[in-house]
């Protein structure tokens, strides 16, 4: 079985994903697929992509869940990819050393030349982050776009994973989670970021930020309108409490002023 590196640096590159602002648009998945099908882990196969039995390799997947009941119900979108664990089960069960964790930055990768397609890593991973490429016959996974983040030919602002560059809601953040003063670490501390399934003890580097509580007086993202008041009840042309305290006209004015 493969051993974890003993001389690890304090650097832990990873993602912080905000479940409050993720809108489930799948832009992260699509851009991840586009970049990586020509990058470090290329190609990413697809079989019968428009058929009923479509299969293929996707490093990033977005799931949708309904939470709560009645007026408090809402949809939570949950992006899922490799969490680059501190104690990755996928690495420890690999019989050839194909799955390994880098000592310099904590990224978990696969050496395809050593992979024998035994799939032990996919069985061991509790997060379902491993992908078997039926075309090339090897296991593949998220690389944190290692060919982007260290690419000196790119502008520094572009040296982040493809999923981060494309998120329209700014729900994905990348940085060094081993540095408590980094932007991502501060964000996790301020928002109460958490590990996925911490009870399993794999210590995932990637963190999730929980959805914020709904603001009082709102249904979804809009202010709840007060009950309509009949004109005869107040006199035509007279200002009503509803108009002054959040009625339809006030609501329209508020929306247009944003």
Describe what this molecule looks like in 3D:
The protein is of the alpha+beta class. It has two domains: 197 residues, Alpha-Beta Plaits (2-Layer Sandwich), CATH 3.30.70.20; 39 residues, no CATH class. Helix content is 21%, strand content 19%. The strands form six sheets. It has a three-stranded mixed sheet, with helices on one face. Strands 2-3 form a two-stranded antiparallel sheet. Strand 12 and strand 13 form a beta hairpin. The termini are far apart. About 2% of the residues have low confidence.
Précis, in short:
The protein is α+β, with helices and mostly antiparallel strands and 258 residues long. It is built from nine helices and 13 strands. It folds into two domains: 13-209, Alpha-Beta Plaits (2-Layer Sandwich); 218-256, no CATH class.
- What is the general shape? globular
Rg estimate, integer Å:
24 Å
User: What is the C-level CATH assignment of the largest domain?
Assistant: Alpha Beta
Report low-confidence residues grouped into runs of 5 or more: 240-245
Q: Under the CATH scheme, which architecture of the largest domain would be assigned?
A: 2-Layer Sandwich
Number of domains: 2
Count of beta strands: 13
For the sheet with most strands, the description reads: 3 strands, mixed
What is the typical, i.e. mean, pLDDT? Answer: 87
Largest sheet, spatial ordering of strands: 10-1-11
Counting DSSP H or I runs of 4 or more residues, the number of helices is: 9
- Portion of residues within helices: 10-25%
Helix/sheet category: alpha+beta
Beta-strand percent range: 15-25%
Kindly report the CATH topology of the largest domain. Answer: Alpha-Beta Plaits
Instruction: Give the SSE string.
Output: EHEEEEHEEHEEHHEHEEEHHH
First-last Cα distance: 58 Å
């Amino acid at each position: 079985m493969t051993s974890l590196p003993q001389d690890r640096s304090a650097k832990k590159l990873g993602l912080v994903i905000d479940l409050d602002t993720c809108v489930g648009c799948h832009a992260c998945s699509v851009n991840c697929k586009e970049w990586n099908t020509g990058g470090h882990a290329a190609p990413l196969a697809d079989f019968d992509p428009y058929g009923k039995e479509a299969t293929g390799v996707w490093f990033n997947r977005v799931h949708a869940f309904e939470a709560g009941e009645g007026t408090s119900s809402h949809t939570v979108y949950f992006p899922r990819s490799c969490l680059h664990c501190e104690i990755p089960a996928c690495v420890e069960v690999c019989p050839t050393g194909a799955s390994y964790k880098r000592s310099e930055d904590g990224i978990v990768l696969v050496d395809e030349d050593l992979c024998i397609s035994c799939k032990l890593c996919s069985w061991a991973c509790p997060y379902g982050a491993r992908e078997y490429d039926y075309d090339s016959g090897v296991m593949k996974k998220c690389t944190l776009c290692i060919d982007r983040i260290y690419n000196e030919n790119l502008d520094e602002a572009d040296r982040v994973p493809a999923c981060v560059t494309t998120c329209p809601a700014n729900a994905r953040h990348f940085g060094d989670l081993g540095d408590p003063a980094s932007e991502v670490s501060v964000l996790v501390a301020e928002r109460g970021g958490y590990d996925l399934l911490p009870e399993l003890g794999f210590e995932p580097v990637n963190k999730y930020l929980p959805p914020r509580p709904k603001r009082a007086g709102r249904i979804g993202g809009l202010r709840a309108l007060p009950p309509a008041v009949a004109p005869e009840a107040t006199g035509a042309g007279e200002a009503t409490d509803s108009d002054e305290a959040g009625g339809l006209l006030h609501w329209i004015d508020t929306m247009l002023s944003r």
